[in-house]
């Protein structure tokens, strides 16, 4: 194996799996054990008005993602997972976790369309 740019980037990916797993497990711990819903379904850094219904889904997303990454780390350390396989699993897991968090945040923050009155302004402006 020749040490080149691709090997260096994959080594960085492998090293980055450790803090990624730590943060995902910590987030799941906060949601499940400490009942802290401040990081559930964030949209622009703000949790929804009632994050409790979305907490089990956020915890599951984080625990599944962290579990898959732990499996990848274990497989790489004991040489059971091939190079192409672990990079594909790790990359796909990271992307799918981001996509699942995005979908959950959009479900928790519904789009509210403000109704306009007949004069063309918003409904709140009519009483001013």
From TrEMBL:
Q: What residue ranges are annotated as transmembrane?
A: 6-25, 54-77
Keywords, alphabetical: Membrane, Transmembrane, Transmembrane helix
Entry annotated with the keyword Transmembrane helix = yes
Superkingdom of source? Bacteria
The entry's protein name is SdpI family protein
Taxonomy of the source species: Bacteria, Pseudomonadati, Pseudomonadota, Betaproteobacteria, Rhodocyclales
């Amino acid at each position: 194996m020749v040490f080149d740019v691709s090997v260096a980037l994959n080594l960085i990916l492998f090293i980055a799996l450790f803090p990624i797993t730590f943060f995902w497990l910590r987030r799941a711990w906060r949601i499940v054990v400490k009942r802290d819903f401040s990081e559930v379904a964030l949209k622009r850094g703000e949790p929804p008005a009632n994050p409790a219904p979305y907490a089990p889904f956020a915890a599951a997303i984080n625990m599944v993602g962290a579990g898959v990454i732990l499996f990848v780390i274990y497989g790489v350390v004991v040489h059971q997972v091939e190079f192409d396989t672990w990079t594909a699993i790790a990359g796909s897991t990271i992307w799918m976790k981001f996509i699942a968090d995005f979908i959950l945040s959009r479900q928790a923050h519904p789009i509210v369309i403000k109704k306009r009155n007949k004069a063309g302004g918003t409904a709140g402006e009519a009483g001013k």
